[in-house]
Structures are given as C-alpha cells and as structure tokens.
Design goal:
The complex is a heterodimer of chains A (about 850) and B (about 110).
Chain A (H helix, E strand, L loop, with lengths): L1 H12 L3 H19 L4 H12 L2 H12 L2 H19 L1 H30 L11 E7 L10 E2 H8 L5 E16 L5 E8 L3 H5 L5 E2 L10 E4 L1 H8 L9 E4 L2 E8 L13 E4 L12 E9 L5 H18 L8 E6 H8 L3 H31 L1 H9 L4 H37 L4 H4 L6 H24 L3 H9 L7 H37 L9 E6 L9 H13 L4 E7 L13 E2 L10 E5 L3 H5 L3 E4 L13 E5 H7 L9 E4 L8 E8 L14 E5 L15 E6 L3 H15 L5 E6 H17 L1 H26 L1 H9 L4 H37 L8 H27 L3 H6 L2
Parallel strand pairs in A: 4-9, 6-8, 15-20, 17-19
Antiparallel strand pairs in A: 1-10, 1-11, 2-10, 3-4, 3-7, 3-10, 5-8, 6-9, 7-8, 12-21, 12-22, 13-21, 14-18, 16-19, 17-20, 18-19
Helix pairs in contact in A: 2-3, 5-14, 6-12, 6-14, 6-16, 6-24, 7-10, 12-16, 12-18, 12-24, 13-17, 14-16, 18-23, 18-24, 18-26, 18-27, 19-22, 24-25, 24-26, 24-27, 26-27
Chain B lengths: L6 H16 L4 E2 H11 L8 H14 L2 E7 L5 E7 L1 H27 L1
Antiparallel strand pairs in B: 1-3, 2-3
Helix pairs in contact in B: 1-3, 1-4
The chains are: A alpha+beta (about 850), B alpha+beta (about 110).
C-alpha cells in the first residue's frame, strides 16, 4: 500500500525521472551505435529512429505513476484557458447562463437563509435557546402560547433550564405621543428576558425584578422617529393605555422577539397576576443549561404537563406541550406555499441554465473531434481526455459563479426595494459561509454535470473514425443530443411562463370579482379595545355608532365584530338539530345598521332591527352559502340552531333571514357559510370576539376629510381608545389584490432570464450548425441554391426546435398547473389564452434567435466555403 | 512477407523474462533489452515502448525496486533489482508458463 504511495510521491517530486530514464536509454543506444562505427550525429539520429515515440512511452508511464489530479490539473487548466479563449462566444453563452441561474438561486437562498434558517441577530449563544408551546387538542402540529401555570412549572425545573422568560403580546394598546391616542404594537416582557437572550439595552436600563413603577422601554425605531435618537428620551413620560409611564431605556437597533414591529416594551409581572390554565397568552423562551440536550429537555415535558394538570384540575387535559429549538419553531411557523413556489421557479431557471451549459459543452466537443482523436492516438488515456473536458467545464462553472455575484446583488436589490423593505432591519441577510458554500457547491455540481454530457458521449471508436473523416462531418448523435437539450430548455421556459401567466390571470380575475357589497364611499374604522375594558365593549361600540351617525358627511354607520373580508377567520361551533356532522361557520356580531350600510341585500325573511336586543327572541341571520349547504332544497327561515358556547348551548335561535354572500375569506376564496348574530344577543362566553370591532361608514365625502372628526368623536367617548386604521374599503381591496399581483410580478425577472437563456440556447445550436456546415452550404450555393432558400432552411430548423419544445412545454405546463391548483389554493389553472400567448412568445424568440445565424449564410462566399475545413 | 510479429506473444511474457533476467543481479533498462535480444538469439526483441511501461508497472506491483546508478560507460541509468516478492512472482510465473506452453504443445501434437 505505502509502496505505491511512496513511489507516486517520488514520481511527483522527481518529475523528470522517466524522461531521464528514457534519455539514458537513448544515450546508451547512441553509444552502442557509435561503438559500431557510426559518426556521432548519425548515431543519434539512428538511435532516435530506433527508439520510437518517446512522448507516448513517457505518457503511458507517467500515467502509471502520477498523481493525476496534481500534475495534469495544472496542465489541463492551462490548456482549458487557451481553449476557452478560442471559442469565446460559445463559452460566453455558457458562462452567462450559469451566472444568471446561479445568481438568481443564490439571491433566493440568501433570503431563505436569513429569514428562516438563521437565529435572530443579537441573541447570544442562540443554540441553547428553546421555546415552549402548548398544542391544541387534535392539532399537535400547531404551536400556541402557554398559560401562566405552565410557565411557572417550567421555571421550577432548574436542573434543565438556566432561566425561563415570558413575553405577552398586547393588543389594543394606545399611546399618546401627541394629543390623540394612537394604536401601537406592544409587548410585555419579564425582567429576565434581556439577560436570558444576552441582549443589553442600547440606552438606559432593563426592567428590574420586582419593580412596581410604571416603566416602559422604547424600541430603537420608535426612539429614532419620535425622539430623534436623543438621550433626552430617558425620563420622559408617555401615557400608555391611560397610565403615565416613564421611559427607562431603549432597545438595541436590531432587537426583535417573535415578530417585527414592536414599538413599546412594558414590564410583565406574572406573580402579580393570577391567570388560570386556560388563558394561553405567553410566549416563552428558555435557556438550556450547558450539557443539557434538547432531547433531555423534551423528555421532561411530559412530567411538567402532569405537574400542571395535577395542580390545576380544571385544565383541559387534551392540550399538549411541545419544546422546540428557536430556529425549528420559526420554520414551523413560516408560510410555505409562497416560498415553495418561488423556490421552484428559481430552480427551474437553474435547470435551464444547466441545459444551456451542457449544450454548449457538447457543441464544443463536436468541433474538437479531430483534436481529441489525435491526442488519443498519441497515447492519452481515456481518463485523461475526460479530465480535460472536466477541467474546461469546471473553469466555465467557476467563471459563471464569479459572474453570479453581481447578478445576486442585483436580484437582492430588486427584491428588497419592492417587497422586503422592512426586513433588513430585523433579519440578518449578510451572506455567511453557508451562502458561499452554496454558490461554490452549485457551480461545482453544474460544472461536473454539464461536463459529463460530452465526456460520456466520447468513445475511442469515434476518435478513430473522426481522424479519417474531415471535420465537416458531424457525429450525428451528438448534434441530436444538443437538439434534445434545446427542446428541453424551451419546454421548461414555457412551463415557467405559463405558471407566471396563471398568477397574472388570478390577479386580473380578482379585479373584476364582485365582493358582494357596494364599495363606493365606504370607510372602515378598526378599533381594538383593551382586554380590561371588555365588559363595556358592546356599549362603547354602540355609543360610537350613535355619535358617528350624526357626524357631518356620514350617511350611515354599521359595525361588525371582525375586519372586512376576513370575518371568515372567526369561526364558531354551531349545532343544527337534525344535523349530526360538525358545523363550523364563520360567525360575527353585527349591529342593526350593518347590512344596510354595506348595501348587502336581504334575500329572504325579515331585516334586522334595533328591536333585536337582549330581551327579544334570539334570532340569527345566515348567508346564502350557509343556506345552500345545510338546508339544501328547503327554506331555512324559521328553522332553529344553537351556538355551542358555554351557557348557550341549549338556547335555540331562530333563523330570521338570509342575506347575500360576501367574500368573507378574502377576495381569493369563495364565500364560506356565515352566521350573523345581533350585537346585543351575542353570547357572553364569546365576548372576547367583541374586542376588535370594525365600524363601517357610508360617507358622502372622502375619507381624509372625515378622519380627524372620527378620531375626535371617539376620543370624546373614550379618551384613551386608540383608533386603528381608517381606510376606504376600496383601497383595502386594492391592497389585497396588490399582494396577489406581487406574487405574479416576482417571477417576471426570473421569466425574462429563462427566456433569455432559451434564446441563447437556440442561437447557440444554430450558430454552431451554420459554422459547421459552411462547407456544405458553400457547395449548395455553388450548385445554384438561392440564399433565400438556405436562410429558410436555417430558420425552419430553428422554428422546428422551438416548436417541438413548445409542444413539449405545453404538455408539461398543463400537467403542472393541474397539480399545483390542487395544492396551492390561490393558483387558478391557466386559461387557454396563457398557453397560446406563451407558445407564441417562445416561437417568436426561437425565430429571432435563428435570425442571426441565418443572416450569416448571406456572408458565405462559396469559394471560401469550399476551402473551409 | 509472412514474418509474424512476435510482439504480441512477448507482451504477456515480458514480466516473466524481466524477472528471470534480474534474478542473477540488478540491471538497467537498456541492458535488460539487450540481454533479452542476446539470450533469445535475436528471436525476441523488447521494444522500448513495451519494456519501460512494463518495468514501471512491475515496480508498482512491488516485484522490483529501482535506484539510480552509473553504468560501465559512466552513464547515469536506473537500475532495477528483484525483491523478495519478485522472486515469489518469478516462481509463480515460471510455473504458469510451463503449464500453458505444455498444454499448447499437447494440442499441437494431438489435434
């Protein structure tokens, strides 16, 4: 074993060993001939003639000894560079293709890496941080915040956790920076959160344990925009939720927890509260002690669960508990379908680029058959020839990878400027070694794979034959391989286009969809009532409506317990006598003027009125979908149902009327069955749902004029109630449609790149074919063929390639969109128009790409061509 | 004109011959070639194109060792020497040659 290694090493360091040996042989031969009487000169010549091919012998022996990689690599590299410069145009096609493919993929990977795979910035030693969640019954994959008893139990496990901190997401928080209260995003945190994460405040100090003063810590962004990053901010007071709080610190710039956009951080004192096991609103983070593994921590969870259930028998035993590492939890919560779509599209582009490169490599190998044959005859082993090609393709891959860097940069700049404006502050997008490894890995892989194509199709038999023929004949099966590759490319591009076209279609369709109500001059006012005031929520809402109705410019006012278009998010269990399966429609509380304000017509039964209060008989209204679904063929008006709420399950409510459908789950989806309950008759057990009423106003004037009036009216009723978004419903609709447009627009540059690559591919094959067939074309011209017919020949070939590719692509795209529309709900299957447009586009591209090589035909002089080899 | 090429036959048995020639003592490539030619009365000729690759291969296999030295004519040359393994290989190859050639002989006489 070592002998061989030793010998090889020796051969490496004494590279001229074999040469010396052969030379020594030659010298001795010369001596012998001189001894026989030949003069020295002639002896040398004779000796050499007798000796034979030094080069070949040397090469064979060297093959035995050498470290192939080390010695030949250098030689291959040198040779590869020369070859690349000779076939620069073709090489550029390959390099550019790779640069585009790799660049686009890297950009997407950087974002994925930064957003989902990396721990948040600023956390210290985040590998030891874990988060704990409760899981709802029958949904072990869904992560929900924990209740205080669970947090307490976690804290007691001091042999596993070095510390446990909790964060509560607050809603309905209003802060008064100027004269009116504004809605702000706020969280309350335990005093040990910052030390646990290893984060220090940028300014001032953290909360102290046991501190009872009313304090607040600002977010960095708030500090910058409201306080000009001035140190005077410390010590100032802000009225938050009616309480004056002193600013004691400022968070560091990129700090965030669980989500972005927190403006204020308030202290959380769990020992002062006494919330029960069913109030699940705490986000927890814990630090594992050194030496403790996640598995060990996880195995402790069952015990903790048992502890809590033992201490709090009223706890619902079907809720589970789950421990996740920080990054794992983030990935679980991330939105998948959009990511998958983008990732898929981008991979497709890389595939197309690889096909291009492979095609180029095959093309180059065709032109060099003769050279390869000569080298084989000189004694180069098959492996040497193949490694030569590999080196060339690796060189191309490396060049492509280097060029990919500015492409990545450009793609990132584009994405950030349009869609991710907020992200850079909170996610860490600086490239790390993983990204470099990714680029290098892909480049290497592409280089190897595309180098494989020509290498594999090379055989010694071909070499022999090639030597005999002149270079004007092309090995048919390799040119066919190239054609196949181009066809593949065109097909893939078509699939890309169709996919994007479908997205565009969805967008267009949205724009014409009827939301189910009159959107003109309709304002929506979002309010979030703080939990402490839930008892008076209904009264407050009604009083606000009463006063708003009298405001100047307001024609009518209605309220619903959920944001417009998204009432479908609040679903409630309902029991319909006579139905055994589960019934879970969307349900919302509405005030009597709601339907009228929105212009939702009543289809059957009676209208809702102010008489439907808590004294009257319980009545509900349903939409068409619900009627059709649960009472097909009959008239639901007059029938009964019951709400499965605590204390309400036996109270039967009568269906008083049916209203027209509205899009209650966003514009993208069809309306789901919905139930409308008069505000005054809303079950007490569900009163939390009334904390986020949306007031809808039909106005005679535009929104901007009314906004200040609205705010002051509400401030008169509740001085500290923050008023959320006041927006015309039409613009809300537009924003929703814009989001869909965004996902249709993102692929645009990617598609453009795909098209470009396909064009390059077609051009490459045709240009090459023309140059190879110059000889043949010259003959044709000499024999009388008109240039026109020859141009048509070339064009025809290009169109044929594009045509076959298009046909193949249509089939593939059709299959793809069918499967996708099953998986990803907003993906409407593409209309015929999209297919036709895409087909035309590709054929046009094919024609253009064929045009340039065809034009070259004009410049061929038959006499030159005939001499051309 | 009918002169058959002994080259092919020689190829397979070249290692055997080299091992045998190195048995008495070390020698260098040129001398080995001359010795084969001489001992076989010019019937067999070891072409440089086959001899040197064969020598290097045998060295890799461990049957012979090499060392640079000086010839009688004061020329630098690479000397090869039989190893213990080589001696074993020589015995093995010799036996094999005898059994094969014996078999061929038999067929030529009987058939």
């Amino acid at each position: 074993m070592f002998r061989k290694l030793r010998l090889r090493l020796r051969a490496l360091f004494h590279r001229n060993d074999i040469g010396d040996e052969l030379r020594s042989h030659l010298e001795q031969l010369t001596d012998e001939l001189m001894a026989q009487g030949l003069p020295p000169q002639e002896a040398q010549i004779a000796a050499r003639r007798q000796f034979g091919n030094t080069a070949g012998i040397g090469e064979q022996s060297r093959d035995l000894f050498s470290f192939r990689l080390l010695e030949d690599c250098a030689r291959d590299l040198h040779y590869a560079v020369r070859m690349l410069r000779k076939t620069s145009l073709l090489s550029m096609v390959a390099i550019i293709s790779l640069a585009l493919g790799i660049g686009v993929n890297t950009a997407v990977w950087i974002i994925y890496n930064g957003a989902l795979l990396r721990p948040p910035p600023l956390y210290h030693d985040s590998a030891r941080l874990v988060t704990i969640w409760e899981t709802p019954p029958q949904e072990p994959g869904r992560l929900r915040p924990v209740a205080a008893p669970v947090e307490e139990a976690l804290r007691q496990n001091t042999d596993i956790f070095g510390g446990v901190a909790a964060v509560r997401v607050l809603s309905g928080v209003s802060a008064r920076f100027e004269s009116y209260p504004e809605a702000v995003s706020a969280k309350s945190i335990t005093s040990n959160l910052l030390p646990l994460l290893g984060v220090e405040p940028r300014l001032g100090r953290n909360f102290r344990e046991g501190e009872t003063d009313a304090t607040v810590v600002l977010s960095h962004r708030l500090w910058k925009t409201r306080y000009d990053s001035s140190e005077d901010a410390l010590g100032q007071t802000i009225v938050i939720g009616g309480v004056a709080r002193t600013v004691i610190g400022v968070m560091p710039e990129r700090f965030w927890f669980a989500d972005t956009g927190t403006a204020l951080w308030l202290p959380l004192r769990l020992d002062a509260e006494h919330s029960g096991p069913e109030q699940r609103d705490l986000l927890t983070v814990a630090r594992l002690l050194p030496g403790v593994t996640i598995e060990q921590a996880r195995s402790r969870m069952e015990g903790i669960l048992a502890q809590v259930s033992g201490r709090y028998p009223e706890r619902n035993p079907d809720w589970g508990i789950r421990l996740e590492d920080l990054i794992g939890a983030r990935r679980l919560q991330a939105d998948s379908p959009g990511v998958l779509l983008v990732a898929g599209g981008v991979c497709l582009v890389l595939l197309i680029a690889c096909v291009n490169v492979a095609s180029v490599m095959v093309g180059r190998s065709i032109g060099r058959e003769k050279e390869t044959a000569v080298r084989a005859a000189l004694g180069a082993g098959r492996l040497r020839l193949v490694s030569q090609f590999f080196t060339e393709s690796l060189l191309i891959a490396a060049a492509g990878a280097i060029l990919a860097v500015p492409v990545t940069w450009a793609m990132l700049a584009f994405l950030f400027s349009r869609f991710l404006a907020d992200f850079p502050i909170f996610y860490d997008f600086t490239p790390d070694f993983r990204v470099i490894a990714f680029i290098a890995g892909i480049a290497l892989l592409t280089g190897i794979v595309s180098g494989l194509a020509p290498a594999l199709s090379q055989s010694k038999a071909d070499a022999g034959r090639a030597l005999q023929q002149s270079s004007r004949t092309i090995t048919p099966h390799r040119q066919r391989l190239r054609r196949v590759l181009v066809v593949l490319e065109v097909g893939l591009t078509l699939t890309l286009i169709v996919a994007a076209g479908a997205g565009w279609e969805s967008y267009r369709e949205l724009m014409v969809r009827d939301p189910g109500f009159d959107t003109r001059n309709l304002l929506s006012v979002r309010l979030t009532i703080p939990a402490e005031k839930s008892a008076g929520a209904t009264a407050f809402t009604e009083e606000s409506l009463r006063q708003l109705r009298t405001a100047h410019g307001v024609l009518s006012a209605g309220a619903i317990g959920a944001p417009p278009f998204w009432e479908g998010r609040m679903q409630c269990p309902v029991r319909i006598p006579g139905h055994t399966d589960a019934v879970v429609p969307a349900c919302s509380a509405v005030n009597p003027d709601y339907f009228h304000t929105l212009g939702i017509p009543l289809l059957r039964g009676r209208a809702i009125s102010p008489q439907d209060d808590e004294q009257a008989a319980q009545a509900v209204w349903i939409n068409e979908s619900m009627a059709r679904r649960f009472w097909p063929g009959e008239d639901p008006v007059g029938q009964y149902l019951a709400l499965e709420a605590e204390g309400d399950a036996d109270r039967l409510r009568q269906i008083a009327g049916i209203v027209r459908n509205t899009h209650n789950r966003g514009i993208m989806h069809d309306p789901i069955p919905a139930l409308y309950i008069p505000l005054q008759q809303y079950p007490a057990a569900w009163s939390d749902s009334l904390l986020r009423p949306t007031i809808m106003l039909r106005t005679a004037v535009s929104a901007d004029q009314l906004a200040p009036d609205i705010r002051s009216i509400i401030a008169r009723i509740e001085p500290d109630q923050a008023v959320g978004n006041i927006a015309p419903v039409a613009s809300i609709l537009q924003t929703a449609a814009d989001e869909v447009l965004a996902s249709a627009v993102i692929p645009m540059p990617v598609i453009a790149i795909g098209l470009l690559l396909s064009a390059l591919g077609v051009y490459g094959v045709l240009a090459f074919a023309v140059s190879q067939r110059t000889h043949e074309i010259g003959i044709r011209i000499a024999l009388g063929a008109s240039r026109g017919s020859l141009i048509k020949l070339i064009l025809g070939e290009g169109l044929r390639l594009a045509g076959i590719g298009t046909a193949f692509g249509i089939v593939a795209a059709f299959a793809l969109t069918r499967t996708l529309s099953g998986l990803i709900v907003p993906f409407e299957s593409a209309q015929t128009a999209v297919f036709v447009t895409a087909a035309f586009l590709l054929l046009a591209v094919g024609a253009v790409a064929s045009y340039f090589p065809a034009r070259r035909v004009l410049r061929i002089h038959p006499s030159d061509a005939l001499r051309h080899e | 004109m009918g002169k058959s090429n002994p080259g092919e036959l020689l190829q397979g048995t070249l290692p055997l011959l080299v091992l045998r020639i190195l048995y008495p003592g070390p020698n260098h490539g040129f001398a080995i070639a001359r010795r084969i030619q001489a001992l076989s009365k010019d019937v067999l000729r070891a072409e440089e194109g086959s001899l040197y690759p064969a020598l290097h291969k045998m060295e890799l296999e461990g049957w012979i060792e090499s060392e640079w030295g000086v010839t009688e004519n004061n020329r630098r040359a690479k000397y090869y020497r039989l190893t213990a393994r080589g001696r074993k290989q020589l015995k093995h190859e010799t036996e094999r040659w005898h059994s094969i050639s014996g078999a061929i002989e038999t067929i030529l006489m009987e058939a």
